[in-house]
Amino acid sequence: RPSLFLETFLFFGCRWLDVHVACLAVLMLCKALWFEYPRGWFAREVVLLVSCTVAHRLRHVLGSYGNRTKNSASLAAFLALTTPMVLGVGYFTCMQVYVLNLEFVLGVFSLSLLAGQLLFSAAAGMAFYLRKRDLFMVICGTGVA
Fold first, then answer.
1. Cβ–Cβ under 8 Å, residues 63 and 75
2. Can you give the pLDDT at residue 8?
């Protein structure tokens, strides 16, 4: 049976990360009006936010598909894409040019959800494997994350 815990974390994590990205976009525009960014940094942060959004969508599709069909290869790809997501969320949590307290709190909550997704997807991937190759891919995906 598919992992109920993983599906729950995927459902709420997807919704939460959508809210987080929307808040980041609004706050980024407000900060561009209030503060002076170093030359070229605002565009880089916008590109990074768009990249995180694309990775988030792809991760959600892979994780949900892998869990529902018990496909270890999809869960391994989901696990491997966790690293860029954690790096992106971590950047917006505490390393961007101007970090507001609200962004820090939102980011810590998002990182907590990503950690739960990582934990439950690794457990589900190891439970779903049919061939040793699938187990190896899940272990490699977990190792990358």
1. yes
2. 86
Rg (CA), the chain: 16
* Amino acid code (one letter) for 63: G
Contacts of residue 64, Cβ cutoff 8 Å, sequence gap at least 6 = 7, 10
Task: Read off the pLDDT of residues 48-95 as tens digits, 9 standing for 90 and up.
Answer: 999 999 999 999 999 889 888 888 888 888 888 988 999 999 999 988
- 121 by Cβ neighbours in 10 Å (0-12 / 13-18 / 19+) ranks as buried
Q: Which two tokens stand for residue 76?
A: 């391994």
d(CA 93, CA 109): 10
Of 121, 120, 27, the residue nearest 78 (C-alpha) = 121
Alpha carbons 110 and 100: distance in angstroms, whole number: 15
Whole-structure pTM value: 0.83
Q: Contact, 24 vs 63, CB < 8 A?
A: no
